[in-house]
Amino acid sequence: xxxxxxxxxxxxxxxxxxxxxxxxxxxxxxxxxxxxxxxxxxxxxxxxxxxxxxxxxxxxxxxxxxxxxxxxxxxxxxxxxxxxxxxxxxxxxxxxxxxxxxxxxxxxxxxxxxxxxxxxxxxxxxxxxxxxxxxxxxxxxxxxxxxxxxxxxxxxxxxxxxxxxxxxxxxxxxxxxxxxxxxxxxxxxxxxxxxxxxxxxxxxxxxxxxxxxxxxxxxxxxxxxxxxxxxxxxxxxxxxxxxxxxxxxxxxxxxxxxxxxxxxxxxxxxxxxxxxxxxxxxxxxxxxxxxxxxxxxxxxxxxxxxxxxxxxxxxxxxxxxxxxxxxxxxxxxxxxxxxxxxxxxxxxxxxxxxxxxxxxxxxxxxxxxxxxxxxxxxxxxxxxxxxxxxxxxxxxxxxxxxxxxxx
Length: 407
Fold this sequence. Notes:
The chain has 407 residues and is of the alpha/beta class. Helix content is 46%, strand content 17%.
């Protein structure tokens, strides 16, 4: 059994860039509940003059150590150089931690911390596990021949081959990772993301919040996530004019920010949607949890989606979902109409039909909400931690056997 693990992640609450921060926190806390000592090495945010290791914090039993880094540049070429510097700083901080504690393994999350995680594992002579949450190949539909995508892809390929074990969040991702990095599928474990319904608590006056975005007789369609091309929000916007024409009183709400934001707003203007919806930008978790409660449905139209955490959170909040029939979304919303609806990925016309169907059929919406509330319970963090710990223990036993042979 692994007694102490060091987890590396470029984000950890309250530093949140996306779903990875929440995943690492919930996994770390569940591992602690199961008797594993967990240190997390992550980044804080400071000026360039403040770069250095912050004092440790204990949060829900997890020892969190932060390396101060300046804010990251939005230009991708400069971002790659920034990541390399962050890895150097994390490596130095990790070596200091290793002088204070004896670690049984290193667990890194994604390419952003791969160099530091692997080098620490080498120097400590312990196993290195990586969780691959997404790939550059998937995010860019295979266009990774030119810098900086080619650099990120090469780091991910090296990471997947170097790691002693690889974890992904869906069976779709297992096939994807094995294929594009040319590794044996048997080396890739599938452990899904989780959701904790008790944390999805709305705040404030929900009726007042809904009045901000929709009238009493209007239906509210919610789109949530990073505003980037692969999330497919352009497909949902393209579907909405027809839905509004056929159904009538329909409004949309887009929550999130990203590189595709200006283009999406321009598209909404071209389609005549500016009077039918709102872009609210980035929002915190408390507001997001409230939005799930006031929406009539949530659409997840991703072109590339390793898992589909938004769909899981929406269902856990009692908001019915329509998702693209693609990637890990197929596993979050299984085939059929039991927990949610699926549309043909990339097809805005079919998405419009599904949206219309769900908005006009109250009985269907109620059935989906009821079934989904049971379905989400299978994505339990304690179970996820137990399965992760099983991989830790298996690697530890393998390392012990190899050490015995060499001895």
